[in-house]
Design brief:
Distance between the termini: 40 Å
Order of helices and strands: EHEHEHEHEHEHEHEEEEEHEEHHE
Shape: globular
Number of strands: 15
Number of helices: 10
Largest sheet: 9 strands, mixed
Low-confidence stretches: 1-5
Mean pLDDT: 94
Helix content: 25-40%
Strand order of the largest sheet: 14-13-12-11-7-10-9-8-15
Strand content: 15-25%
Length: 361
């Protein structure tokens, strides 16, 4: 960052302008004080036009090589391209001397993630993983409840990321080619596993069931993962595109009380609708009709327990933390080694589902 001052925005190159790049990363980067979206990499003419329309000052590069040829003009690379490209692109960016943010999953294997972490450490560079669901409204609320001891000792954590999509949409995320690193285990599973490990620590064993349910589907679209954490907490995690009746997003059972929460954080839907942090009142907030409930012995559907106000979701906090890490040496918000631990679980889940066994980590 030669010649940069603490008041000059850090220049960000964004690789990929599909769903992840256009809906999540670009708007959040642009909304973060201290960051400037400098360049978008996409070879697709329509996406190039979309990027220019949404960010008139942005520069366009047709390839990652074209971007890295200008490495000296940038301060951070964000990789939001298809999963199979993550490792190669992150490696090239780190070797070019640039800090890197990689969308989840950082890699197809935990070994690759640890190799990237070692490379970043060797070069003294930040390598962070975009696990935005740590800043979901329900997750932030649950962390608060746990910190305040409202639930007592947690015995079981149930987390569901379920959808009803009876027809496959196609694309690389639903490809059966293992090289694409598609399927819900690695897509939504990356979120629910990361949240479980963040809340309750490392997993000691993994059991999973994984199925291809929909006609024409090529990869897993209905998966269940059971973790036994080293501290004894059990996490039951569901990711599905085949759920005709959605369950609670969280059901957390403890020695004093339970917490049940329905509905998804509103930030993704708002970003898809073109709303922007800083330009939208009440960012990340939800109506009190969607509040979860805390209590014991009664069903929340019949008014059991008390309503627990949901904290606002805060995806912008991730890039604010990245900027602080680069500027001030603040902590990396999500490290590659944390991502590797989640990949250990995902790899174990794949083996468990394939072989019908419980895998010890």
């Amino acid at each position: 960052m030669t010649g940069r001052t603490t008041r000059t925005p850090l220049r960000v190159g964004l690789v990929g302008y599909g769903l992840a790049g256009s809906v999540f990363h670009a708007p959040l980067i642009a909304a973060t004080e201290g960051l400037a979206l400098d360049t978008v990499v996409t070879s697709n003419p329509e996406r190039q036009d979309q990027a220019r329309a949404e960010f008139p000052d942005v520069r366009i590069a047709a390839s990652p090589d074209e971007l890295l040829d200008r490495a000296a003009e940038l301060d951070l690379i964000v990789i939001a391209s298809p999963n199979k490209t993550h490792v190669a692109l992150a490696t090239s960016a780190l070797k070019a001397g640039l800090p890197v943010v990689v969308d989840k999953p950082i890699a197809g294997t935990a070994a690759e993630a640890r190799e990237l972490a070692a490379l970043a450490e060797q070069h003294g560079l930040l390598l962070s993983v975009f696990q935005n669901r740590r800043w979901d409204n329900d997750f932030l609320t649950l962390r608060k409840l746990l910190a305040e001891g409202e639930l007592g000792d947690v015995w079981r954590f149930e987390s569901r990321f379920e959808r009803w999509r009876p027809q496959p949409k196609g694309g690389w995320r639903e490809s059966g080619d293992p090289a694409e690193i598609g399927g819900l285990l690695y897509d939504l599973g990356s979120h629910v596993v990361d949240q479980a490990l963040t809340l309750f620590g490392p997993a000691a064993s993994v059991y999973a069931e994984s199925d291809i349910r929909r006609p024409g589907a090529e990869t897993d679209d209905d998966t269940f993962i059971a973790l036994t954490h080293a501290n004894g907490v059990r996490s039951h995690l569901y990711v599905s595109a085949t759920t005709a009746q959605l369950g609670p997003r969280f059901r957390v059972l403890g020695s004093k009380a339970g917490y049940v929460k329905y509905g998804l954080d509103p930030q993704e839907a708002d970003l898809r609708d073109g709303k922007r942090p800083g330009a939208t009142d009440g960012w990340g907030e939800e109506p009190d009709s969607l509040y979860g409930r805390v209590g014991s012995g009664e069903s929340p559907l019949t008014g059991g327990g008390r309503p627990e106000p949901t904290l606002p979701g805060d995806y912008p906090a991730y890039y604010a933390a990245v900027a602080a890490a680069l500027r001030d040496g603040a902590p990396n918000p999500v490290t590659a080694l944390e991502a590797a631990a989640a990949l250990d679980v995902l790899e174990a889940a794949r083996r468990s589902a394939r072989d019908g066994v419980t895998v010890t980590l």
